[in-house]
Amino acid sequence: MSLTHLIDSYCAAWSKEDSQQRRALLLPIWSDGVTYTDPTVHAVGAEELLAHIAGIQAKHPGARIIRTSDVDVHHGIARFAWKFVMPDGSSFPEGLDIAFLDPRQERITRIIGFFGPLVRSSVS
After folding, report:
1. Which has the closest alpha carbon to 110: 76, 85, 60, 66?
2. Rounded Cα distance, 1 and 28, in Å
């Protein structure tokens, strides 16, 4: 599986309303003991992340996570931008995820997510 396909499968797991489809997408790419952290949650393991995604889908039925950048990687760490798109096409500000990968870059071992664009510093 290519790295881009791995990340796209991860994003697709967030986008499925059906819990079994989410599970089928996430489990093959999610390592044991993996953590997911964003400003709203720290989830340990697949079950906690699946429960978090289910909560997001319950609040925003039909919402999707779409990757909006190429996947950039070095030293087993990838980054990519994404946006949360509502069924009517509206979206929240983009986010950025940092994904830590297993040595073969076939599974995710940790995700750290940030919401919104980076704010430019006023320092020159």
Report:
1. 76
2. 11
